[in-house]
Amino acid sequence: MKKLRILVLTHESLVPPESLAGCTEQQVNEWKTEYDVMTHLKAAGHEVQVLGLYDNLGDLRRTIATWKPDVAFNLLQEFQGIITYDQHIVAYLELLRQPYTGCNPRGMMLSRDKVLSKQILSWHRIPTPQFAIFRQGHPYRLSARLKYPLFVKSATEDASLGIAQASIVEDRARLKERIDFIHESTRTDALVEEYIGGRELYVGVCGNDRLTTFPVWEMDFGTLPQAAVGIATRKVKWDLKYQRKHGIRTGRANGLTEADHERLGRLARRIYRALHMSGYARMDFRMREDGSVWVLEANCNPNLAHGEDFADSAAGDGLPYGDLLHRIVRFGLNYRAEWRLSET
Q: I need a surface site. Which of 55, 72, 233, 318 has the fewest CB within 10 A?
């Protein structure tokens, strides 16, 4: 790839240093993705500038106008502290006619809205657990339609915020208690869905029109007791000491048939297209003992850190980390945004 000017966009608190010298493991873990992307792009010879954002749209506009980047490498997960506002930054980039990496605004909006995405997937007859939404600040009645056990989580937050062992409920009293907890602790609506036990599988997808899927990856819950297996809490996903203590890891899914791999890849591509996604994404599935597969979530712009499941699954398909980043950049440069269509 020719040498480019690449503007890396991240939260203002996650701008990485030039070196890891003197940094603790906990500090590095906070901005590891940003550091990995920045250093690998620089090592490839690109001119890289990192811009930290919170609510400073003026800085973004000025940087684009003066520095004129070839592409913005989007690593934002929120704006003004609101997770659903990240889609508006991408829309703003489109208004500025600035190419960017990752998912487009429509795909971000559809996939970030867990309720709307489940409604769309259900319409496409893509298997997803039965669910109900309980609005914050509104009176609600507990539905008798859903079958226990049920899983309760935030309708909009990600990164496992609000998810714990208590998220699985077995009766109406526990259900009401957990709904109230989500409302109070996350200040969001509560999404309640039928709990699907089984293997937790991930499938990475890359592309705009022609799509590539990576090998199926699996969450291994290690030595956690059986009661805790199958719940990807915040500690399971992000606490390095907890992961090492219990041997929690992700890796290539073993024991699947060729038909299983084909079915999961096909489902991942169907979800990607149904939600109008672009760039790259990760689909989260559960597979029961009977072989049935259910989609849990579609994650646009998943964690891109070197050594995390998305990058590792790409490497498992023969795509090293640096090549993965370049592929994502190419998808950003080639994405046919509306402003480009108006110029043809």
A: 318
Among 145, 162, 194, which residue terminates a domain? 194
Residues in a beta bridge with 6: 48, 71
Per-residue pLDDT at 40: 97
Domain count, the chain: 3
The predicted pLDDT at position 102 comes to: 97
Boundaries of domain holding 313: 198-334
Q: What is the pLDDT of residues 258-271, one digit of tens each?
A: 999 999 999 999 99
Q: Is 145 exposed, middle or buried (0-12, 13-18, 19+ CB in 10 A)?
A: exposed
Instruction: Report the CATH number at residue 253.
Output: 3.30.470.20
- For all residues of the chain together, what is the average pLDDT? 90
- Residue 298 to residue 301: CA distance in whole angstroms: 10
CATH number at residue 85: 3.40.50
13 and 134 belong to one structural domain: no
**Same domain flag for 10 and 83:** yes
**Are 160 and 259 members of one domain?**
no
According to DSSP H, which parts of 151-257 are helical?
A: 172-186, 234-238, 240-246
Nearest-Å Rg of the Cα atoms of the chain is: 20
Cβ of 147: how many Cβ atoms within 10 Å?
10
- Encode pLDDT of 209-224 as tens digits: 999 999 999 988 776 7
Cα 118 to Cα 156: distance, rounded to the nearest angstrom: 12
**pLDDT tens digits along 287-341:** 999 999 999 999 999 999 999 999 999 999 999 999 999 999 999 999 988 887 7
Residue type present at position 324? L
Provide the b/e sequence for 45-67 (b: ≥16 CB within 10 Å). ebebebbbbeeeeeebeebbeee
Same domain assignment for residues 174 and 215:
no
Assess whether 166 and 222 both reside in one domain.
no
The CA distance from 230 to 221, in Å, is: 7
Helix (H) or strand (E) holding 342: none
